[in-house]
């Protein structure tokens, strides 16, 4: 019996125990090197999916529901402001008898550059840009040609170009800038006392057109008003027959030199903010305007843009429905400038889709200034 017991003990010790130990070690190895990494990988993958897919998707969905509520709330603020304070101001009932020649009708002797409230257009040369119905609503900020805008009273143009001298708005391109310049020259040839601020810049993300400064001076030379810090207090009669303040804003090329035919970016400033919320933009416009020097001491043009910008993270990305949230508030903004004591700082007022009411508001305020009503 002892023999068989010893044989069994030996078998257990030399065969069974090593086999069990090997199996246990193998199992631990499988757990350590296969199961645990697989579980960890699955857990990491799940966290990555949550972090990079599910959370952003939830955030986008939440934004889509929240943004309309934000817009509605901000529009109500403006509506309440309009209801409680109104949009009347001195000169708001003035209507020029001739929009094409409105500066002449206000008197070129009395009208100094720093008393003008310049009606301007934002992205002025975007009429017909892109593909109708498809991309045009994403980039078209004006439906009138440059000439039509000038005839209807616009006196500041915001023109964006790319390397090949075509008009552009972001990635959308349109006609050659020659069409803009030709429209400006056509208008100047048909009038005698209207002065235009023509801002031309290289669009963000694009390269400067080669030799563009020479192009502008060659095309517009006879009309160009030299860069001059003393110009702002001068009357139109002292500036004529020169008619165009051309501000060239390249991205990489040298800026126009001081005292030259073209003006550099120091002479046209603004504080653009990227938002589609109307009260946010209204407040920003007002606060930045208050920070500017008064017109009597200012030696640059300052622009307020009564516009909104569609946002990529929102369902509503067409320009018109977004910018219409604030476009209707031009007269309200002017009346608030008076109420808040900064009307003497308002100078260039720009809009998308300029219309006669916006023009009348700007020119009415100019009329009030030169006649001592404000």
TrEMBL record:
One of its GO terms (molecular function) is phosphoric diester hydrolase activity. It comes from the Eukaryota. InterPro entries: PI-PLC_domain, PLC-like_Pdiesterase_TIM-brl, PLipase_C_PInositol-sp_X_dom. GO terms for biological process: lipid metabolic process. Residues 107-243 form the Phosphatidylinositol-specific phospholipase C X domain. Transmembrane segments: none annotated. This is Phosphatidylinositol-specific phospholipase C X domain-containing protein. It comes from Brassica oleracea var. oleracea.
